[in-house]
Amino acid sequence: MSEDRKVDVPHDYDGIEELDNDLPRWWLGIFWVTTLFAVFYWPYYHWINPQKLPEAAWKAENAAREAERAAAPAETTESLDLDARYAAGGWEETGKTVFDTYCVPCHAADGGGGIGPNLTDDYYIHGGTLANIHQVISDGVVEKGMMSWKPVLKPDDLDAVAFFIRSLRGTTPASGIAPQGELVDESGQFVTQE
After folding, report:
1. Neighbours of 113 (CB within 10 A)
2. CA–CA separation, 81 vs 88, rounded Å?
3. If you average pLDDT over residues 20-37, what whole number do you get?
4. In whole angstroms, what is the distance from residue 186 CA to residue 65 CA?
5. CB of 183 closer than 8 Å to CB of 193
6. Residue 123 host element (H or E)
7. How is residue 124 annotated by DSSP?
8. CA gap 83, 181 in Å, rounded
9. pTM over 0.70, yes/no
10. If you average pLDDT over every residue of the chain, what do you get?
11. pLDDT, tens digit, 9 for 90 and up, residues 76-92
């Protein structure tokens, strides 16, 4: 700035003189335009705005979601009639597709096992009922390295792959690994050995 525009202020700190210069006009223009905009925008946003405020919209969405959840029947592994749906059929193609997509890397294409256990024999680690199989697929078994598939698969796909895995029992794989777990009977319950 030129010397004639400086206005001296009688302050001197450590040899530094404080000067009182005018702010640039463009800076003041931006300041006043934004202030004027805020004067009109604030009442519009909080009082006149036809849309809900974000917090109100969020509360309304959560209330609707909770009402929907309360109205829907609780779906738990125990409440599903898996045996009847297994017997009804219609899941074979979907079950095989899901199995081929997600399960083959650990359990082999024919269910004979690999990293994961053999699914064709009568030995199960966590039980051989449809409810047990469904629960293992849904929740996973972290200590055995199997992830939970519930966040990945749709509920119908979870059911279909559980049915498909149950249908593999009793088949003969090309190269199955040794049995793991305990012997189960025809219903999938553990056989007590005396």
Report:
1. 21
2. 11
3. 93
4. 42
5. yes
6. strand 123-124
7. E
8. 23
9. no
10. 83
11. 544 457 778 877 888 88
